[in-house]
Amino acid sequence: MKFAWIMAEGNVWDKKKQFITTALESGMDHVVDFSDADNIRRLGNVKLISDIDGSDVMLVGRNSEGDGTLIIPDDLSESKDLAAVKRLKRMDKKVAAYVEILTKKHQELAALLGKEADYLILMGRDWKVIPLENLIAGLQDEDVKIIAAVADYDEAKVALETMEHGTDGILLCPHEISHIKKVSELIDKIKSESYQLKPATVTKVEPVGIGDRVCVDTCSMMQLGEGMLVGSYSQGLFLVHSESMESEYVASRPFRVNAGPVHAYVMTPGNKTKYLSELETGDEVLTVDQEGNSKVAIVGRVKIEKRPLMLVEAESDGVILRTLLQNAETIRLVAEDGTPLSVAELKVGDKVMIYLDPKARHFGMAIEETIIEK
């Protein structure tokens, strides 16, 4: 999952505070700093990356004067930065190694540090010639997150898209506050997963009795045509519409999806699923619109109640899918044209939107395995 850290340079706290506060409001909760740790921690629940003892992530290779790793020994194994990273790792510390890429030798040192550190921050004076491609390829099998230091949206976009995979994250060192929100929007767009939805033909609709039903209340407002991917089978999930429509019975609740019974799967970030019964306040789920575009939403509350249930069966490309939903007029699937379709009006032959997953799942993760679900 792509991420962004913030570093507000300079010694004027009021200006630095404004940058960091904007970053926190934009979802960036990792701050690189060397002089205002106590002030920064007062701004919110942040992770501090610094060379100061007690930092959440210890930074090696860059000090408060902004000096990069400029002097490199002929024998890279004798690098003081490399020794410092190894020492901190032996102390069970999280470590970020910082390297300013000036020569081929700096690139070689960065590759060595990347095999030891948790994070590798790369800075280049001429962004266009940073050998990101070589380092991304050379460290792809290592357990390290590669971070590019950038100044604005354009540099962030280049870094995050290099070699298709891009860096794992960026360290934003902005000159203007407007860059912060723009980069945050870029990260959100990249993190957004797309699901290829297709219509399925309803083949059965019937009441089945009482069960424990789950309502998922999120910290986000959903729009018309937007809901969650839910179902009884991991091989295919139904797009269950949010309660964003007014009804003669209840007011709209655009933050809620009345998702189904406790056993059902719901799609979560990273193409993973969870059982509805597992969701708790603070968890992440995906909201998906009728085009298959997704957004990450935070679960605010999960409400489980006994309610009458209805079995919905549908077929697409020879695959039979089933799910159970509360038998109520306010519960809706999404029709082929993107409009909400109440289960109270659902009938055989109707088209509803589903997502077919060719992979089986083990503990919510997609795997290559044959599993029969019925």
Automatic annotation (TrEMBL):
InterPro entries: DHQS, DHQS/DOIS_N, DHQS_C. One of its GO terms (molecular function) is NAD binding. Residues 1-186 form the 3-dehydroquinate synthase N-terminal domain. Keywords: Amino-acid biosynthesis, Aromatic amino acid biosynthesis, NAD, Oxidoreductase. It is an enzyme of class 1 (oxidoreductase). The keyword NAD applies. GO terms for biological process: amino acid biosynthetic process; aromatic amino acid family biosynthetic process. It catalyses: 2-amino-2,3,7-trideoxy-D-lyxo-hept-6-ulosonate + NAD(+) + H2O = 3-dehydroquinate + NH4(+) + NADH + H(+). This is 3-dehydroquinate synthase. It comes from Methanobacterium formicicum.
